[in-house]
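User: hey, got a sec? need Transcriptional regulator folded
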Amino acid sequence: MLGESPLWDERRQRLYWVDGVSRLIRFHDPATDSTGQCETPSTVGSIGLCEDGRLIAGLVDGFYLVDPDKGAVTPFLIPPRNEKMRFNDGKVDRQGRFVCGGMGVFADPVGELWRIDGAGHSEILANGIRIANALCFSPDGGTMYFADSLDRFVRAYDYDNGELSRPRVFADTQQFNSGPDGATVDAEGHVWVALVNVGKLARFTPSGKLERLLEAPTDMPSCPAFGGPDLSTLYVTSIKDSGSGRAISRHPQGGHLFAIDGLGIRGLAEPRMKLTLSETPDV
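Assistant: Yep! Here you go:
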């Protein structure tokens, strides 16, 4: 199990997350304690919310619209096939566009950072990426955080008008002997990063200073996200087996989803992509 991309839908009061290796999008409704899942045609790296209630998902070969309740998966935008890359970490930005980074199938520097909007427009923001992770945005949308996990630091970029500029090192995770995995931003603008190699969660101030370091409930936490009725529960996905041999948990609860309460911190409602396209666009 490769748990990733936890995503809280505040309208439905539902948590989504992906099990990439099993090709599943899972969901849980805490109010009724009910769960469900939807199969995808290939490994799924990340998901985002759409205005119409569906999800936008980054799969191996491109971007798909997913109706989890109906189990319907529809191609939305499929780039020319790059056999050496699959799409990995992604999030909807504050302007309502899905930004998703790729990774080399063998961790080669062939990944690309894509951005798509609901009209089917697409652009490549960066390339030469080995494993795209830690993608998230400041509360005002003016800063994008992003990492190539094998570099072992998180970068920050100015994201004014959606253009990437002024790249700088935001947080050096080498000091913790870990690469950064998934990340999220809370309502105070602090950045939470999963330190997947050492079983910890780090919270950094907007200036990049370490504010706290928490022990995760398992040895390989993969991504945090806030949810719950008041957005005060920190959900954390984890890895059992990444499927590549690079990450295998020794913890009996590896691959489980965890909920951490009592932090006294709240998250932000996730943005949604507004779909304006009626058919699959050409790339």
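Quick note: The chain has one domain: 3-273. Let me know if you need anything else on Transcriptional regulator.
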